[in-house]
């Protein structure tokens, strides 16, 4: 993920301003670049889409995907929904929080791993499921979770 | 001589279980052995307890092996699997596997079978026949065919699809839209994902037919961000369809123009509700709109819009190709055709089961699903996602049908079936339903926004034993208020899981178990 650059942010905003219903594609592109939605982008988006800053703030905070602070080097999303619950997701989540010493949305003290909840990855027949940096993992158990976390913390 | 073909699933579910590692092992073994094989990347057949399920094309037809791990690959080559050789993982012809044999695959006939991005494969297996029929029947004839098929929206609400199309077709406007709702947020459901990853052209064909039928030239697919593989595969399929002129200013050489664009959601469950989805597509917070006006009259950007689920649209080509009557002949009562049922959670045989409506819940769970994966007794089954009711064993005779589930204060929704064994704490599940609603509420209406938070608190009080009877009455009244007073199905349906848990599993709330007997 790139570090903050006003010029780059302005390029992204300009590249998306012309499309119908531009707000979400624009915010997704900003987050893909920076890993989060820096506060400085809110007035840029507002000006480009002829919205108030309050409206843009409303959009950014409505959607769970958009982060309000930079994530760690890796993002682990653990499914918290019912199908995964039926296969032991709650205790896996407790183990992950304890190992990383974070709450949902938090980043481990070494800055390596951010733990995020997700409500369904569509892997309900391979539960419990997770996604590490976009890579899907199914049939998760304590051993596989440990292996995932170890890999993430070493790189 | 053409090299032997090996079919490797690249569905997200198969990937989550290691199919890419298996593919790498196959390539490595191929090099080491000096062989030449052709790897065909498919979606999944949907037998997830057997994934990664690898198939080889032999002189006797395709032979399946599974679940294959990377370390099994060498021994599979040793066993002569390219000729269908015997091996502990050999499953035989996939069509003979009982789970698949019992199904009626119409919408999913190609999923897991063909190279998902090969237009030749798609054409060879009946692709574009529906579009040819639509062009021959013309817009009005196509709409009437869909009305006659009895197809109801497969997203959850089950609204007759032909009526939506007819209403949009009759609306006069310079621009109309087809919006495909691919915001498959219900836990326990993955049919939309599988289809987009395994047979993306059928969705493109279905949307194109919808566009021609109602006079829309632009389609949007709103896919949830949790589905990166589906976004990628459908995006590539749209590109291919555009190059081959199935999309663009002249669809398949006709006078009709149609094109499709993908938009990605941002993690809001409520955007699966059609009006919230439209607001989100317009670049706003995904808040629910009051109806009327209906989207068919004033939808996306205020224009007449058809909003249909992935499976609904993907069922259109086969209905036109086989005829409305053939489709309507399947099913039960007012639930016609087939439903892709998704068997999930703590179940031995988990996966996609497409069948005509009418199987009982007990057949699905005990017989087809083989009971709990944990080997323990099944205690509760949630049908229809996080807003669906929990069914106890006593209701396992309920047939899978829209009206039968409604009659039992439940819903079939998008067809997800999530099974829990006897270790489940139903008070905790009820609390989760309220908590989920409070996290995902769009905030527009008070019963949902405030009611869900109060609901969590009241359930906590009941479980702690604080004025149990009074708080149980309060929870019941709160659910009634949310059901009647909420603007959409989020607040309106969350009483289903909560009240079913309370009604059928009162002992988990510290209440008298006799309450359940009285309810049943």
Gist of the model:
The complex is a heterodimer of chains A (155) and B (520). Chain A has 155 residues and is of the alpha+beta class.
Structure notes:
The complex is a heterodimer of chains A (155) and B (520). Chain A has 155 residues and is of the alpha+beta class. Chain A folds into two domains: 6-62, no CATH class; 74-154, Glutaredoxin. Chain A has seven helices and four strands, in the order H-H-H-H-E-H-H-E-E-E-H. Chain A has helices spanning 6-16, 23-34, 41-49, 53-62, 82-85, 89-100, 142-154; strands at residues 74-79, 113-118, 130-132, 135-137. Chain A has a four-stranded mixed β-sheet. In chain A, a hairpin with a 2-residue loop joins strand 3 (130-132) and strand 4. In chain A, helix 1 packs parallel to helix 3 (41-49) and helix 3 (41-49) crosses helix 4. The longest helix of chain A is centred in the last third of the chain and has 13 residues, at 142-154. The radius of gyration of chain A is 17 Å and the shape is elongated. The mean pLDDT of chain A is 96. Helix content of chain B is 42%, strand content 15%. The mean pLDDT of chain B is 96. Chain B has helices spanning 12-16, 19-33, 73-78, 98-101, 119-124, 129-149, 161-170, 191-198, 200-214, 228-243, 274-281, 310-322, 324-328, 361-368, 402-407, 426-440, 446-464, 468-485, 489-493, 495-504, 514-519, and strands at 5-9, 38-42, 54-58, 61-65, 90-92, 177-182, 218-223, 259-264, 305-309, 331-332, 335-336, 338-345, 351-356, 378-383, 390-392, 416-421. A five-stranded mixed β-sheet of chain B has the order 2-1-3-4-5, with helices on one face. Chain B has a five-stranded mixed β-sheet with strand order 13-12-16-14-15. In chain B, helix 6 packs across helix 7 (161-170), helix 16 runs antiparallel to helix 17 and helix 16 (426-440) packs antiparallel against helix 20. Chain B folds into four domains: 5-101, Glutaredoxin; 119-328, 3-Layer(aba) Sandwich (Rossmann fold), CATH 3.40.50; 331-421, Ubiquitin-like (UB roll) (Roll); 426-519, de novo design (two linked rop proteins), CATH 1.20.1440. The termini of chain B are far apart. Chain B is an alpha/beta fold and 520 residues long. The radius of gyration of chain B is 24 Å and the shape is globular. The chains are: A alpha+beta (155), B alpha/beta (520). At the A-B interface, helix 2, helix 4 and helix 5 of A face helix 1, strand 12, strand 16 and helix 16 of B.
């Amino acid at each position: 993920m790139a570090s903050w650059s006003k010029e780059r942010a302005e390029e992204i905003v300009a590249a998306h301003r012309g499309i119908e219903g531009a707000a979400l594609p624009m915010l997704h592109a900003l987050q893909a670049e920076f890993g989060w939605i820096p506060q400085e982008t809110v007035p840029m988006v507002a000006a480009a889409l002829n919205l108030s800053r309050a409206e843009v703030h409303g959009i950014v905070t409505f959607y769970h995907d958009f982060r309000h602070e930079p994530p760690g080097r890796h993002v682990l999303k653990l499914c918290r929904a019912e199908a995964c619950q039926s296969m032991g997701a709650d205790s896996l989540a407790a183990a992950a929080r304890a190992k990383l010493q974070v709450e949902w949305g938090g980043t481990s003290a070494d800055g390596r791993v951010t733990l995020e909840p997700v409500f369904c990855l569509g892997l309900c027949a391979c539960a419990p499921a997770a996604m590490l940096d976009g890579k899907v993992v199914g049939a998760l158990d304590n051993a596989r979770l440990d292996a995932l976390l170890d890999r993430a913390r070493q790189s | 001589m053409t090299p032997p073909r090996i079919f490797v699933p690249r569905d997200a579910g198969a990937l989550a279980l290691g199919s890419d590692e298996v593919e790498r092992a196959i390539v490595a073994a191929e090099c080491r052995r000096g062989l030449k094989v052709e790897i065909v990347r498919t979606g999944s057949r949907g037998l997830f307890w057997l994934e990664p399920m690898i198939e080889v094309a032999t002189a006797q037809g395709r032979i399946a092996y599974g679940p294959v791990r990377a370390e099994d690959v060498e021994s599979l080559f040793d066993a002569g699997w390219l000729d269908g050789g015997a091996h502990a993982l050999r499953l035989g012809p996939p069509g003979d596997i009982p789970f698949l044999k019992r199904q009626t695959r119409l919408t999913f006939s190609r999923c897991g079978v063909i190279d998902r991005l090969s237009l030749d494969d798609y054409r060879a297996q009946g692709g574009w026949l529906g579009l040819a029929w639509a062009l021959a029947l013309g817009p009005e004839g196509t709409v009437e065919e869909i009305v006659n098929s009895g197809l109801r929206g497969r997203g959850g609400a089950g609204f007759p699809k032909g009526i939506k199309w007819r209403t949009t077709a009759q609306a006069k406007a310079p621009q109309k839209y087809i919006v495909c709702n691919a915001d498959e947020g219900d836990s326990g459901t993955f049919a939309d994902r599988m289809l987009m990853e395994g047979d993306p052209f059928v969705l493109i064909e279905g949307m194109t037919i919808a566009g021609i039928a109602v006079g829309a030239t632009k389609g949007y697919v709103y896919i949830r961000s949790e589905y990166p593989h589906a976004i990628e595969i459908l995006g590539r399929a749209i590109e291919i369809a555009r190059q081959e002129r199935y999309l663009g200013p002249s669809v398949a050489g006709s006078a009709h123009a149609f094109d499709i664009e993908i938009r990605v959601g941002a993690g809001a469950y409520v955007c699966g509700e059609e009006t919230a989805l439209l607001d989100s597509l317009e670049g706003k917070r995904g808040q629910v709109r009051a109806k009327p006006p209906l989207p068919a009259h004033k939808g996306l950007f205020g224009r007449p819009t058809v909003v249909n689920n992935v499976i609904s649209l993907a069922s259109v080509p086969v209905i036109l190709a086989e005829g409305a009557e053939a489709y309507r002949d399947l099913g039960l009562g007012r639930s016609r055709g087939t439903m892709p049922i998704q068997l999930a959670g703590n179940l031995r045989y988990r996966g996609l089961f497409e069948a005509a409506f009418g199987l009982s819940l007990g057949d699905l769970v005990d017989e087809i699903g083989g009971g709990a994966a944990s080997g323990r007794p099944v205690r509760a089954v949630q049908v229809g996602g996080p807003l669906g009711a929990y069914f106890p064993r006593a209701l396992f005779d309920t047939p899978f049908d829209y009206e039968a589930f409604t009659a039992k204060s439940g819903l079939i929704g998008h067809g997800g079936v999530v099974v829990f064994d006897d270790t489940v704490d139903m008070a905790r599940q009820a609390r989760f339903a309220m908590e989920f609603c409070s996290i995902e509420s769009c905030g527009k209406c008070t019963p949902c926004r405030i009611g869900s938070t109060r609901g969590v608190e009241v359930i906590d009080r009941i479980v702690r034993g604080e004025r149990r009877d009074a708080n149980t009455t309060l929870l019941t009244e709160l659910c009634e208020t949310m059901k009647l007073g909420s603007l959409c199905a989020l607040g309106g349906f969350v009483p289903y899981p909560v009240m079913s848990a309370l009604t059928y599993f009162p002992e988990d709330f510290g209440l008298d178990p006799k309450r359940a007997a009285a309810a049943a």
